[in-house]
């Protein structure tokens, strides 16, 4: 879903600190420190520019002063980015005052245009007559970023987005910290004018283009991989103020990071956001954990639970508008593997029965209709949550036969032709039990 969330590398490949820094040698030129330079954990950053044969070219950017390798410090910020965000917000205030006939959006520059800027963009493709409804749905106007590892933007389909919002309201939450979920944020914003709608949202996203559509109280330019607020202390305070549960308004964090990002880096940032939430109350919320929906593929379950043991994975399949495979209604391997991980009580997460979900009285949670309860495991063990993965239909017969069975060696349900995690067979090298071939002591003597 995410609004162009940066991966843990932080810097783009084309702008990484990998070339020579000698002036005139081609690569990167160090311009030195600046009084207003942003800071990373290693102190004030240094200003660089990409050069070619001694000539400056390209945008200037700040990078860590101590670490040359971006794996050691992933801090990165364009020099003009903060200025651009401020200008974009001012442009929006003037743009909404224009009559419909004078509202244009440049598709190449991805920005709203004022009449004085038309001539400069005359050779660009642009959209005309931008309506108020379009302004409230910026994800429909902006081109999605498509680098799967660094800033992939896959937007929730209306079905999933509406389900999440309805669930949030039914659970009694009135504030949503939308971390990398612009489609959910704009759905909340579009309903904000309704008298009986009480939910508010703050969007934290790496895509600064959203600055031109939202105020400082609605959007913070944020890198979820290193918990960095590009707006500095002011943005940090905006987020902290939003997390304060005034008049009992409960807060929930909903996040949908790029699937190619490092789970460890994401977990670290989410824990820091949770710590901010705890700081807003003197009692520390009675040692409770900030409510959370982490939307991620089911095959990352073990990694997520490593950092957040309190999370449970729900069977609900989240689908996306602009993803070729992750769509609702597909079957087999093309069915969406994206799930909701939450620290809320599973029984409170009501899944739509009309979409094939049912309530398991033993597990006390809603599961997919194809997720059969195993009496030995005493759990609904399916991860894929589709009928065809567990049952083989015999042609012209009504009877179904289970394709999975409970393996006593593995102590879980699995396919019949699987390889046991626990086996009586010894090492392939020495034949002894207790170790694998790669760890065989005999290999060191060979």
Low-confidence stretches: 3-25, 385-402
Mean pLDDT: 76
The assigned CATH architecture of the domain at 151-369 is 3-Layer(aba) Sandwich
Largest sheet: 8 strands, mixed
How many H/I helices?
9
* Cα shape: globular
Instruction: Tell me what portion of residues adopts beta-strand conformation.
Output: 15-25%
Based on secondary structure, the structural category is alpha+beta
| Counted beta strands | 26
Pfam family, one: Zn_ribbon_GRF
Subcellular location: Cytoplasm
Keywords: Cytoplasm, Metal-binding, Methyltransferase, S-adenosyl-L-methionine, Transferase, Zinc, Zinc-finger
Biased composition (Basic and acidic residues): 12-21
Structural key phrases:
446 residues, 22% strand, Rossmann fold, nucleic acid binding, cytoplasm, 5-stranded antiparallel sheet, 9 helices, 26 strands, disordered N terminus, Double Stranded RNA Binding Domain, S-adenosyl-L-methionine, zinc-finger
Structure description:
The protein is an alpha+beta fold and 446 residues long. Among the domains are: 28-78, no CATH class; 90-130, Double Stranded RNA Binding Domain (2-Layer Sandwich), CATH 3.30.160; 151-369, Rossmann fold, CATH 3.40.50. The chain contains nine helices and 26 strands. It has helices spanning 81-95, 132-135, 138-141, 158-170, 182-190, 232-243, 263-279, 301-307, 441-445, and strands at residues 27-32, 39-40, 43-44, 46-52, 55-56, 61-63, 76-78, 104-106, 111-113, 126-128, 173-179, 200-205, 219-223, 228-229, 250-255, 292-297, 312-313, 338-342, 357-360, 365-368, 373-374, 379-380, 391-393, 400-402, 404-407, 412-415. It has an eight-stranded mixed sheet, with helices on both faces. Strands 1, 4, 5, 6 and 7 form a five-stranded antiparallel sheet that branches. It starts with 26 loop residues before the first strand and ends with a helix.
């Amino acid at each position: 879903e995410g609004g162009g969330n940066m991966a843990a590398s932080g810097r783009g490949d084309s702008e990484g600190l990998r070339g020579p820094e000698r002036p005139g040698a081609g690569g990167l030129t160090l311009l030195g420190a600046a009084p207003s330079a942003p800071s990373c954990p290693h102190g004030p950053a240094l200003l660089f520019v990409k050069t070619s044969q001694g000539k400056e070219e390209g945008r200037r950017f700040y990078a860590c002063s101590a670490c040359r390798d971006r794996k050691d410090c992933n801090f990165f910020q364009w020099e003009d980015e903060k200025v651009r965000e401020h200008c974009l917000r001012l442009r929006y205030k003037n743009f909404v005052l224009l009559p419909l006939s004078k509202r244009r959006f440049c598709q190449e520059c991805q920005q709203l245009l004022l009449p004085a800027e038309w001539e400069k963009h005359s050779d660009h493709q642009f959209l005309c007559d931008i309506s108020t409804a379009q302004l409230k749905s910026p994800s429909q106007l902006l081109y999605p970023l498509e680098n799967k590892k660094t800033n992939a933007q896959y937007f929730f389909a209306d079905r999933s987005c509406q389900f999440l919002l309805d669930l949030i309201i039914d659970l009694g939450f009135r504030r949503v910290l939308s971390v990398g979920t612009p489609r959910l944020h704009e759905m909340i914003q579009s309903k904000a004018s309704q008298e009986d709608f009480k939910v508010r949202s703050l969007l934290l996203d790496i895509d600064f283009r959203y600055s031109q559509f939202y105020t400082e109280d609605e959007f913070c330019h944020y890198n979820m991989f290193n918990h960095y607020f590009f707006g500095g202390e002011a943005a940090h305070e905006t987020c902290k103020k939003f997390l304060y549960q005034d008049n009992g308004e409960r807060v929930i964090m909903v996040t949908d990071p790029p699937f190619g990002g490092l789970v460890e880096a994401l977990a670290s940032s989410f824990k820091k956001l949770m710590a901010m939430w705890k700081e807003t109350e003197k009692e520390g919320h009675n040692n409770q954990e900030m409510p959370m929906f982490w939307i991620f593929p089911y095959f990352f379950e073990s990694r997520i639970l490593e950092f957040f043991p309190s999370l449970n994975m729900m069977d609900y399949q989240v689908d996306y508008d602009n993803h070729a495979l992750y769509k609702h209604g597909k079957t087999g391997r093309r069915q969406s593997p994206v799930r909701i991980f939450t620290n809320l009580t599973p029984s409170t997460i009501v899944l739509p029965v009309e979409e094939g979900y049912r309530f398991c009285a033993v597990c006390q949670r809603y599961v997919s209709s194809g997720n059969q309860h195993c009496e030995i495991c005493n759990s609904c063990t399916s991860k894929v949550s589709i009928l065809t993965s567990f049952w083989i239909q015999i042609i012209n017969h009504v009877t179904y036969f289970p394709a999975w069975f409970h393996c006593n060696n593995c102590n879980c349900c699995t396919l019949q032709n699987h390889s046991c995690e626990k086996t009586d067979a010894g090492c392939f090298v020495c034949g002894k039990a207790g170790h694998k071939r790669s760890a065989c002591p005999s290999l060191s003597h060979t």
